[in-house]
Design a protein that fits this description.
Oligomer: single chain
Helix content: 25-40%
Strand order of the largest sheet: 2-3-6-4-5
Number of helices: 5
Order of helices and strands: EEEHEEHEHEEHEEHE
CATH architecture of the largest domain: 2-Layer Sandwich
CATH superfamily of the largest domain: Impact, N-terminal domain
Structural class: alpha+beta
Number of strands: 11
Number of domains: 2
Length: 207
């Protein structure tokens, strides 16, 4: 599985842009991390007030580790736009992403077959743009657990967690220790748990 790199700021959101033209109609495609999807869709509607359709598709994991998929034809003929766009995301094995295709009508009806080709190409072009920019990375499903660590072991735990590439966040300072949240790749979490249980003083078992 692949996804878009997550390093982004409000000033410079991560996105990949593509386009496709057919018989005068322009299809502008925007690929975003799923976390930015709804906000980006609203923003694109404001930026392109003369566009006639905003077709979209997305794939992301829910809390149970299942992939949820969605699409919206936005008044294009059924099966001509949203589903083909989603199929491209599936074919490229992308997760935690959303794509929006902005269509400017060129005056000529394309028919269902023409629309399928146009939307498919537009999404594919955005993905190719992401590849060229080095924005696609392997998707690693992050897991999280919380625990309490005695103050005497805190610095060692934090050092070992960061050495394993884990996110180590202090949530609360309690009378007998610190409540922390540790997040990262499953195998690294298991290594940390083994080290933690064998070598560090702990107050509560991880959740």
């Amino acid at each position: 599985m692949k996804t878009l790199a997550s390093q982004a700021t409000k000033q410079m959101p991560i996105q990949a842009i593509g386009n496709f033209e057919s018989k005068g109609s322009k299809f502008l495609s925007f690929l975003f991390p799923f976390a930015q999807f709804n906000e980006s869709l609203s923003s694109l509607k404001e930026q392109h007030p003369k566009a006639v359709h905003f077709v979209s598709a997305s794939r992301h994991y829910n809390e149970y580790g299942q992939i949820l998929e969605s699409f919206d034809d936005d008044k294009e003929p059924r099966g001509s736009s949203g589903t083909p766009s989603l199929n491209v995301l599936r074919g490229e094995e992308l997760v935690e992403v959303g794509v929006v295709i902005v269509r400017y009508f060129g005056g000529t009806l394309l028919g269902v077959g023409g629309l399928v080709r146009a939307y498919t190409n537009a999404v594919q072009n955005a993905i190719e743009s992401a590849k060229m920019q080095g924005l696609l990375v392997d998707y690693i499903h992050a897991e999280t657990f919380e625990l309490q660590i005695a103050y005497s072991a805190l610095s060692v735990c934090e050092y070992e967690a960061k050495k394993l590439g884990l996110c180590f966040e202090k949530e609360a300072f309690l009378p007998f220790g610190v409540q922390v949240r540790v997040q990262g790749e499953k195998k690294c979490l298991e290594m940390f748990k083994t080290m933690y249980n064998n070598n560090f003083v702990f107050i509560a078992n991880p959740k």
